Amino acid sequence: MIKLYTEKVECQEIIDDWKDGFMKAMILEKITKVDENSSPLILVEKAEREPGISEVLLKVSTCGVCHTELDEIEGRTPPAYFPIILGHQVVGRVVERGRAATKYKTGERLGVAWIYSACGECNYCREGNENLCPHFQATGRDADGGYAEFITVNENFAYPIPEVFSDAEAAPLLCAGAIGYRSLRLTELQDGQNLGLVGFGASAHLVLSLAKYMYPQTGVYVFSRSAGEREFAMELGARWAGDISDVSPERLDGIIDTTPAWKPVVEALKNLNPGGRLVINAIRKENGDKDYLLNLDYPTHLWMEKEIKSVANVSRNDVSEFLELAAKIPLKPEFQEYDLMDANQALVELKTRKIRGAKVLRIE
Ligand SMILES: [Zn+2]
Ligand SMILES: [Zn+2]
After folding, report:
1. Could you give the CA distance from residue 330 to residue 141 in angstroms, rounded to a whole number?
2. Minimum-distance ligand to the CA of 315?
3. pLDDT of the residue at 20
4. Whole-number Å distance between alpha carbons of 267 and 259
């Protein structure tokens, strides 16, 4: 059952008396364009979920806001059903457990990432590449996510959050950080080789710090069309920062592209060393500048065994390994906080690239 609330006054009432088996949630009812509709999500009161036999019910405290939510809202990677609760960088505490869920105690703080479930039986799953499983299900796209007071998840797809992080610091690590870690692994970079980061949002700013820790001799070169992002990159220790079309002062051995566009990919390829690899970290590209691909010049951009590879989803190992590594550094993301009911504002700002670090929703 769903009740619809549109007035802020009523929102406050929901916060005051949710404790009756109902929860508030920001839901998406249909595909829409954020350019034309600045309130794609609607605040509702919804029946609270019961944990399934192997599931835990988490009381959500924080949920990160990811560019993938825009891809879901605008239909590039459409949700499996409507209405749906988005959000896949979820931090919460166990309040109830299914009969067979014994791994975690009540009160324990857990995170939920993009991978909500996988079959566990196919060749991909057996080889540890469950991110490529044909039955891969994503949190907040194929199952209700964290833009809500509660979430249920199989206990084997939840991760203890290292103590060193606050809830808000941990949330962006669960997607932006974990997929950044996978992207960095897929570049196959070696210490001392040059790394390029194209676009400098939530994921790239974490990758910069991660790369400096994992590959201390490596220089990081950042490409961004935003002067603010370039400045931020230099503050965080980039060796150089330039515009998207600029030629980097040194050739690069690995590049990670985190932009939603095509021009940055074509422009970055000219900076790649022979045998270098460009990894595209985007679940979908937008089609706005797809024509730019016609500028692809084989000798300049691809000849000499340059490679392009996409990074798809994350495995549970990526998330666990990354959280452990991030706690050691410790890697604390820069973030801006919004109330759950201001999720639309956060999404619009993400769309219009008003970004400094990560965006998280506070849900208490
Ligand atoms: Zn994400
Ligand atoms: Zn599988």
Report:
1. 30
2. 2
3. 66
4. 12
Query: Rounded to whole angstroms, how far apart are CA atoms 348 and 104?
Result: 36
Tokens of 271: 């900076």
β-pair type (22-28, 307-310): unpaired
Model confidence at 177: pLDDT above 80: yes
What end-to-end distance do the CA atoms of the chain give, in Å?
A: 22
Ligand number nearest to the C-alpha of 127: 2
Question: What value does the mean pLDDT take over residues 162-186?
Answer: 95
Q: Residue 249 C-alpha to ligand 1 middle, in angstroms?
A: 31
Number of H helices, E strands in the chain: 10, 19
**Alpha-carbon gap, residue 25 to 43, rounded angstroms:** 6
The DSSP 8-state label assigned to residue 48 in this structure reads P
* DSSP secondary structure code for residue 181 in this structure: H
274-312 pLDDT, tens per residue?
999 999 998 889 889 999 999 999 999 999 999 999 999
Q: Which ligand is nearest to the CA of 319?
A: 1
- pLDDT value at residue 283: 84
Average pLDDT over residues 162-171: 97
d(CA 57, CA 52): 9
